Amino acid sequence: MTARDRKVLVIVCILAAVAGSWLLVLGPKRSQASKLGAQVTAAQSQLDAARAQVAAGEAARSTFASSYTTLARLGEAVPSDDNVPSLIYQVQSAADAARVDFRNLTLNPGGVAAPAVASASAAQAATAALPPGATVGPAGFPVEPFTFTFRGNFFHLSDFLGRLERFVVASNARVSVSGRLMSLNAISLGAGPSGFPQITASVSATTYLVPTSQGVLNGATAAGPAAPAASQPVSGSSSPVPAAPATIAIPVK
Amino acid sequence: MRAVNLIPGDARSAGGMRLSLGLGPGTAVIGVLGAAVLFVSVYVLTSNTISDRQAKLATLQGQVTQVQAQASRLANYAAFVKLAQARVDTVRQIASSRFDWHAALADLSKVIPANASFQSLTGTVAPGAGVSGAGGTASSSSLRGDIAAPAFELQGCTQTQDDVARLMSRLRLINGVQRVTLASSVKQDGGQTGAAVATSGSAAAAGCGQNAPTFDLVVFFAPLPGSPVTAVPGAAPLASAATQTTPATQATPSTPAATPTPSATPSGTQPVSTASPTGGTK
Prior knowledge:
Distance between the termini of chain A: 91 Å
Number of helices of chain B: 5
Helix content of chain B: 40-55%
Structural class of chain B: alpha+beta
Radius of gyration of chain B: 48 Å
Strand order of the largest sheet of chain B: 1-2-4-3-5
Number of strands of chain A: 8
Number of strands of chain B: 5
Oligomer: heterodimer
């Protein structure tokens, strides 16, 4: 072996030692460091997302009182139960104010076609918890169809229909509630028993209820919302004869 | 003279070895030591990075656990606020999609001519809707189903056929009316003595008298928000229908488009003339 060969051999050994130590010692270390870096990045993202949720939750907690008030007031327009006594009271009050004779009220079971729901069993389950005669409506709210009969002159009846619809007034910024939310599907005007100008008006109307799975307040109290698993229907506006309707303006956020 | 190298042959190569040894062993040792220092430095730096990242990861995971627990406690508030907003939106949607009966009836009372009287008025928001035990005549009910929009079905009487045309022109003045469709305008032999339901004047309160035409028409309004207008398949074309439909956009009070075909009236009755009513404005 010449001197030159010895030199080459030494250089090769040094390079092999460097490469081997790099691959066997430093390589795994650097890989571990890289993995840890990725885990730190993921944890940071997770932390940011959780902090955003907390911020949203804090914002929701700060507006809980107004949301609770809004739902409680909407309970007058869309109660959790059929609340027919309050409906009669409100309709009679509007009829008195419009100088119209409130003659009849009839519940029409099945008068409103139930829209498509998830499945037949789901529909049965949803309907089973509803008041008799109610079906689940297109907006997800159970609906109850009624037929009212009134008697009065044309202009008083027109005024009365306006009063019925003004129980709930929706504008761009507010929803004002002073009674039950009612959709008048059909009206029929005909001569009254004593002839003109007395008119007998038959009105087909739909009233709305909140879903039974939610209740008026979804189980919340003034102290805070209910836990999701403990969500139970709550009859928030079940007083049989409510006080005289007062207009409540609900700000819309 | 030839140059002669006086250095022995061994000395010649030894001199070369010395030269190479000057760059060889010492340099090799220094190189090895440098490589070892570099290796150790990289190793230490990497180990430090790993330690830092492990510590940071542990801290972050602790914070994530803490913040997620806090978020889960506040999630009920967020869900409640979302529910409240959704319910407000639903109520607003329902309330704003209702037909304004009061305004329609008020407008109707303003446009009825003094010599027109109604025997019955049926208003529905959709063809399927109706009041049990009430409804228009067979002819108007069949027309009612042609357009899925709120509509009034009116039956009544006027003094003359011209008054029917005038009434149709004036009905188009109601806010939101899209079409006024006449089902029939018939003069009864025995005269019309039915009680009137509504009229803008008192002269016709007791009926329209002898030989007065009775009309049956449908007033279609603009569709409610979110309810597409659908024409019922099989509806008779306008040209061959026994009724005349007058789009609100084509006719004005001074130029009525309502000219029922002769077939629209039973035999023995007069066809509606092409009168030019001078219907006023609201």
